[in-house]
Amino acid sequence: DHLFNEKIDYVFKVVVIGDSAVGKSQILSRFTKNEFCFDSKSTIGVEFQTRTVSIKSKVIKAQIWDTAGQERYRAVTSAYYRGALGAMLVYDITKRPTFDHVARWVEELRAHADNSIVIMLIGNKADLVDLRTVPTEDAVEFAENQGLFFFETSALNGDNVDAAFFKLLEEIYNVVS
Ligand code: GDP
Ligand code: MG
After folding, report:
1. Residue 23's closest CA among 37, 33, 13, 12?
2. Pick from 4, 48, 1: which is nearest to 24 by CA?
3. Which residues pair with 118 in a beta bridge?
4. Which residue in 25, 45, 66, 163 has a CA-CA distance of 20 to 30 Å to 122?
5. Is this complex scored with an ipTM above 0.85?
6. Cα of 55 to ligand 2 centre, how many Å?
């Protein structure tokens, strides 16, 4: 954030959702701190982290919210979604059920979030190639049908994490500007 002395043009609230243990908190710390924590505890009480970036010569502060271990279906409250302009909906490419639940998370977003929310579907743990159980094509098809953007990422090695966030923030910018 210290790189930007100029004033912030926009603050975009982004929520990170998806089943437990898919890597939501790690994706967030990879994007905001460029860190991966090998012995991280499950999320407790942390509300949001920020990173300020420049998109189309605007200074944008991304305020990214992490669920405080409320990943059980319907446990995330509507306050969490309030004001969110974007959502990172994360599943684990090695755990099929986490992908099968993505449709429910989309329903949650449609029920609680703003209609214009931009949704990025994320297949995380792409580094675990030998353990993959969700083919990329399945996710591509789902994303196309639902009008979601889609990336596969690895919070572990950092692949595509910045790319996914930048794409999401750019699309939000297109919606609000
Ligand atoms: P959350 O419950 O969705 O917030 O998941 P966490 O971020 O706490 O991660 C759950 C587990 O998956 C932890 O043991 C992480 O170290 C691991 N993990 C997260 N992202 C990746 C990844 O991209 N690759 C691999 N191999 N492991 C990951
Ligand atoms: Mg977490």
Report:
1. 37
2. 48
3. 86
4. 45
5. yes
6. 27
Ligand 1 pocket, 21 CB below 6 A?
Answer: yes
Q: How far is the CA of 63 from the centre of ligand 1 (A)?
A: 21
Lookup result for tokens 């703003």: 114
Q: Whose CA is nearest to atom 19 of ligand 1?
A: 23
pLDDT tens for each residue of 27-60: 999 999 988 887 666 555 557 899 999 999 999 9
Strand ranges, E, within the chain:
10-17, 48-55, 58-66, 86-92, 118-124, 149-152
What one-letter code names the amino acid at 78? S
Q: What is the CA radius of gyration of the chain?
A: 15
- pLDDT-derived band at 73 (thresholds 50, 70, 90) equals low
Q: How many CA atoms lie within 13 A of 15 on its CB side?
A: 26
Does the Cβ of 20 fall within 6 Å of ligand 1?
A: yes
Report whether pLDDT(5) > 80.
no
User: How far apart are the C-alpha atoms of 168 and 97, rounded to whole Å?
Assistant: 25
pLDDT digit string (tens) for 129-170?
999 999 999 999 999 999 999 999 999 999 999 999 999 999
How far apart CA 154 and CA 152 sit, in angstroms, is 7
3-class DSSP state of 139: helix
Q: Which residue is closest in CA terms to ligand 1's atom 7?
A: 23
